[in-house]
Amino acid sequence: MASFLRHYSSSIPSPSSPSSPLADIRVPSFFLPTSSQATWLYTTLAIVAALLVLEQSVYRYKKKHLPGATWTIPIIGKFADSMKPTMEGYMAQWNSGALSVVSVFNMRVTFIVMASSNQYSRKILNSPTHAEPCLVHSAKSILMPDNWVFLTGKIHVEYRRVLNTLFTRKALSIYISIQDAITRNHLNQWLKDAAKDSSPKSIMKTARALNMQTSLRVFCGNHIPEEGAAEISQKYWDITRALELVNFPLALPGTKVYKAIQARKAAFKWLEMAAAKSKIAVAEGAEPECMLEQWVKELQAPGYKGRKDFSDREMAMVIFSFLFASQDAMSSGLIYGFQHLADQPEILAKIREEQYRVRGNDIDKPLTLELLDEMPYLKAFVKESMRVKPPVTMVPYRTTKPFPITPDYTVPASSMVIPSFYNSLHDPQVYPDHDSLIPERWLDSNSSANTNPQNYLVFGSGPHKCVGLEYAQLNIALVLATASVLTNWEHQITPESDKVQIIATLFPKDGCLLKFTPRPKP
Ligand code: HEM
């Protein structure tokens, strides 16, 4: 009772304000600071205020004259924006200057310099002594910190030398029959499904499933059982969902990164097994039928000079890095390929004409590299489709030391620098009528598109340029070519069709609603 009275001692009405309605409100005394509490409170407030001022000052000191918000939102910066990125938001940022600044989750590596011009984007990509890829923040936990993709310098160059042998023409000629067979199976299934329900359906899931199946069989052949391929395919979405520019920093159960790590663990189990089985198959004299076997065989080639021993885990990590780098980008490229062709039937008609001519009307004949060599219009379309809607619009890099990117601006060490590709790929000087899809611009060797190859940044540039670019273009071309002769497809255009959603890569906002029907043989 005594303590109760002490706590409510301030409830004694004040004589100075007898008529105030507030006078009757009883305030517990613990809300009224004693002198030592007051000192503590004011000191804390002063420290917080000083930190906030420091944060703003550091931000403005680093930002210097570059475009970007004058003040940064305390602590989190533009974290909320980065959770739901929009193309419009990015474009506003890119168009604000060749270099511009944004800050996200301040006080971590959160000072970000965005480069939108071709000159600065390429400078970042080609300055390995100043900047290296840092992928998105979650990538290290998902891919494993010792994954080869995090290597830099000489050791990275050496690793890539081996990996380049997995994408030679000889290697691609092994993969193409697998790609052709899987594509036909999936297209037939799409037709069967459409026969049961003819309403237009989003191809987001079906195209992703086709890509995953193709990748797994090209990379691992039959060394992964159906059950393993299904598990990786089904869990892979958890990995895509964790690829945000900024994630919740701790991989606590229930977070996207946690789920992605579980998905990676499941995938690793199967991929390590596939690596082990490939070694056995080649040791027993098998000719390579997939990428892993091609790799093992290459290591034994008499002329091969590089490192000869790769553990099952290292090989699994490489294959996983390929899945990681390709699944979303390939799906984006393929889905926009289907959408662009449906929306521009005159281009689809030219692709079909080339297909029938080069295949001699035999549409059951599997595609080969030699046949594809004779299909320049198809290749030009694939290149142009990805120019108009680049699957990857930017790649985060991190400065390893102060980076004097222009004579009057040095990016501070440990900042994120993000080369963006969109403006290079839509530069009206290089690509007249830049928003229109015109495959012909790639068919004229003197066109400004062909004479300015430095602008075509769809696959990046410099030491980390996409290792799978030939394979990627080949696969998208093969799927669209085969679909064009086996099927007809109609696009249900919605108000969202031309809007973009960013799920690691770019996709039509409505998921691209298509209706497939069988196409009669010629
Ligand atoms: C349309 C499909 C694809 C697109 C648009 C694409 C785009 C890119 C881009 C922009 C980069 C970063 C380059 C840089 O930092 O300069 C990259 C890197 C990479 N890509 Fe691709 N990619 C695609 C498909 C593939 C495929 C199919 C594979 C493997 C089979 C692959 C494997 C990789 C790897 C391993 C890297 C990192 C290379 C390194 O750090 O040395 N990509 N890709």
From TrEMBL:
One GO molecular-function entry: C-22 sterol desaturase (NADPH) activity
Cofactor: heme
Any one GO biological process: sterol metabolic process
Residues annotated as binding heme: C466
Oxidoreductase in keyword set: yes
Enzyme nomenclature, EC number: 1.14.19.41
Origin superkingdom: Eukaryota
Family membership: Belongs to the cytochrome P450 family.
Protein name, UniProt field: sterol 22-desaturase
UniProt source species: Boletus reticuloceps
